[in-house]
Amino acid sequence: MEIVSGCTKAFACLSPFEELVGFFPLFSSYIYGLPTDVPSIRQATASVLQGFLEDGVVAEKYRGRVVGLDFCGDLSARPNGQISVFTPIFQRVSLPITVHFGEYAASGSPEELETLLSWYPRRLGHAICLDEQRKVIKERGLCLELLLSCNVQAGMTQGGFANHHFGEWLACDRVKVSLGTDDVGVFGSGLSNEYRLASEHFGLDQKQICTLARQGIEAIFGGEEEKERLRQVMWI
């Protein structure tokens, strides 16, 4: 009953969803607090480590299926570039990388963003709190994973959908844009609805929506053969 009560209180934090800071406490204040004694902490820790080990084995065995790594979470837990502790790992890894990037002010310090860019990610999620990093994004021709409902509902951007930075980046020929949800369970908006919102608030017609959807093909964590397959099955 305590677990159920804790989870109920946790999800109550989501309504209304005025600030992003209301989301991460679901983990730090509730979910991470579910193990309350030494045996449960020991069991949870062993389970997580076993999962990491199994993931590593699977990644080696099925390299054609495990195609990339996603670095995300409450980045404010390691502010001002302290995430550099992970740098040796990402320097060694031979898989493509996507990271949550400049998601909000607490995780958008120049030191942190410089560290993330030093890992040479191919894709960046959110990309809200940026400054000089815009130049690097354009120079590298990176793909931005943009999230309309998430950013607007969580108060991560100001001015509603019409003022979302999606419009700025869509007009930039040097980067690719890929719409996402992040996530359906929390914000109640599937991917089709995200495209509907893009069409409604940025005046995109059917052809432009199809062109937008195809942009993500060039940034997938896959080879040319898979990209060509997707080009053939998606709209022209």
TrEMBL record:
Family the UniProt entry places it in: Belongs to the metallo-dependent hydrolases superfamily. Adenosine and AMP deaminases family.
Domain Adenosine deaminase per the UniProt entry, residue ranges: 59-232
SUPFAM superfamilies, alphabetized: Metallo-dependent hydrolases (SSF51556)
Organism expressing this protein natively: Emericellopsis cladophorae
Cofactor(s) needed: Zn(2+)
Name of the protein in question: Adenosine deaminase
UniProt keyword Hydrolase, yes or no: yes
Matching InterPro entries: A_deaminase_dom, Ado/ade_deaminase, Metal_Hydrolase
GO biological process: adenosine catabolic process; inosine biosynthetic process; nucleotide metabolic process
Keywords from the UniProt entry: Hydrolase, Metal-binding, Nucleotide metabolism, Zinc
Single GO molecular function: adenosine deaminase activity
Catalytic reactions of this protein: N(6)-methyl-AMP + H2O + H(+) = IMP + methylamine
